[in-house]
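Backbone-to-sequence.
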């Protein structure tokens, strides 16, 4: 929640760009029940005027418009403010403050013409799926969920024309820009990618969306990607590339494990003096073990029972 200050004679403070930026402050209102009492007093005055004209003399007729003004004027100035809701009071084009305290309030009746209610509740929306080129020029589809709320009611009303539309447009712009900053996937393993580094990507998106929405008095609570895919025209080719990369990585792991097992076998044979192997025999044994351990299909061993006579 943005800090609120007491109402002063100065309604605006100069911004760094030279324009007048409206500063949010609390509005001064009266309890709403006071408006009911004023309306009842107006009715009493009207009744007194009618009785005075009928019984005493015609000069009491002036009580009729006075009472009517009290009765009619007390009604427009009454406002109901719900929890997590704010009332921005505007009087003849001037910002008179914001009411954030829930309850029944009485304000200047002329504020009814321009004042606006702003929801301070948490909002969320899903952006439309955008097609952009990633950092490597591959077309991808991307969208995100943005969770936000208004924290500065004056900025939301006076700094932008329609703050909700502003949030939608700027969020989609930030997401499209994010898609061009990173590659969809990093096959080399040395760069941040959209698919492999969701935390870093989410933090970058959050920072950029918040920066764009700061002027509208909006706080971005959370941003996260909810759709990420290659565009249809290259999806099949990229899927084959991913599968090939996965196969290569798996075979590399298998080979590294097989080499370690062969190494352990040779060391164990040497330590226990099970058999003496020359370099040629070791090479043949290593080749046979690697074939058995790295083969994708089940191998059939051939048992050597000795040379025939």
């Amino acid at each position: 929640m943005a800090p609120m200050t007491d109402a002063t004679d100065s309604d605006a403070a100069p911004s760094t760009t030279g324009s007048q930026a409206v500063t949010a402050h609390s509005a001064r209102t009266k309890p709403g029940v006071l408006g009911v009492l004023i309306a009842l007093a107006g009715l009493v005055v009207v009744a007194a005027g009618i009785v005075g004209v009928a019984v005493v003399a015609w000069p009491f007729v002036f009580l009729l418009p006075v009472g009517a003004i009290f009765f009619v004027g007390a009604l427009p100035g009454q406002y109901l403010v719900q929890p997590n809701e704010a009332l921005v009071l505007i009087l003849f084009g001037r910002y008179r403050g914001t009411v954030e305290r829930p309850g029944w309030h009485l304000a200047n009746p002329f504020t009814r013409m321009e004042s606006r209610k702003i929801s301070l509740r948490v909002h969320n929306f899903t952006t439309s799926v955008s097609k952009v080129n990633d950092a490597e020029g591959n077309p991808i589809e991307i969208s995100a969920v943005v969770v936000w709320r208004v924290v500065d009611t004056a900025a939301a009303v006076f700094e932008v024309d329609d703050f909700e539309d502003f949030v939608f447009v700027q969020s989609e712009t930030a997401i499209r820009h994010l898609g061009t900053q990173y590659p969809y996937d990093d096959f080399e393993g040395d760069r941040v990618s959209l698919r492999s580094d969701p935390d870093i990507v989410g933090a970058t998106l959050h920072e950029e969306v918040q920066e764009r929405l700061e002027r509208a008095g909006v706080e971005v609570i959370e941003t996260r990607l909810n759709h990420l895919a290659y565009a249809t025209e290259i999806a099949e080719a990229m899927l084959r590339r991913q599968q090939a990369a996965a196969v290569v990585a798996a075979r590399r792991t298998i080979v590294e494990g097989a080499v370690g097992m062969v190494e352990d076998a040779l060391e164990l044979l040497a330590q226990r003096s099970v058999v003496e192997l020359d370099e040629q025999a070791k090479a043949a044994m290593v080749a046979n073990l690697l074939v058995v351990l790295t083969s994708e299909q089940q191998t059939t061993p051939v048992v050597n029972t000795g040379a025939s006579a």
